[in-house]
Protein: L-threonine 3-dehydrogenase, mitochondrial
Amino acid sequence: GGLGQLGVGLAEMLRKQYGKENIILSDIRRPPAEVYNMGPFVYADVLDYKNLRELVVNNRITWLVHYSALLSAIGEANLALARTINITGLHNVLDLALENCLRLFVPSTIGAFGPSSPRDPAPDLCIQRPRTIYGVSKVHAELMGEYLHHKYGLDFRCLRYPGVVSAHTKPGGGTTDYAVQIFHDALSTGHHECYLRSNTRLPMMHISDCHRATIEFMQAPESQLSLRTYNIAAMSFTPEEVAEEIRKHLPHLRVTYNPDTIRQTIADSWPVRFDDSNARQDWGWKPAYGLSELVTDMLASIREKRTNAGLPVS
Structure:
């Protein structure tokens, strides 16, 4: 799942640390030229165990980052496909990691919590009971990874990501995607129609903090880890709060609210804040971006992208 929202940026950071040739990006889609030219890229279908096995053996892989998944809103519209990719694909990767003694990272999500979970804040260990196939599949991943760690010593690591905000990739069908789209709309038309209520508070994180957390967690000595799955947090905001922050730069931004039943119901079942005290204590996690830094960076990045593409900037 390397061509999704997170893979390309993570590969870029890892290549700076470990060398371009030592990080292989993979997906089932054809990469854009700039990604293909960044470093090694291979076709890898998470449902094709033999192909995955060949890649691991032929390239002497030691770490595997498993980003392949159908996200919350998309998953609800494609239940059978989500179950196949998110659960069957996961089992292929778990088997592969066990067979080859790989260090395995599988992200989890805010969506792994449900309406009966503590919401403010949600701790690492609590009742989860999610109401989406995406959330159910991620709880399954957390528990399977932990089980295989305790039974066979698998070096399984998992972070529950909040909503991730990035200027570099298009929204991918998640419930928190409005927090990316609003910046594009602010700079293109000056109007954003939000599919959540104005007061819907959710945990969010700048993508560079997300990448850094992933790498620091993967590099942490196993002796420092008291858990296999950790929450990580940076900030929590509502659509109205991010709109107000954007208006400090673009006073003309207009936001209307037209809640989508499916996404609003999903958001209402999720935590409004993460308790990430264990990540901070065990392996030193600390975010760099708050809301004002996130807004400044997103507007600058998207303005630059639109200008370079010859598109008008509002």
User: Anything to note?
Assistant: Residues 7-308 form a domain with the Rossmann fold fold (CATH 3.40.50.720).
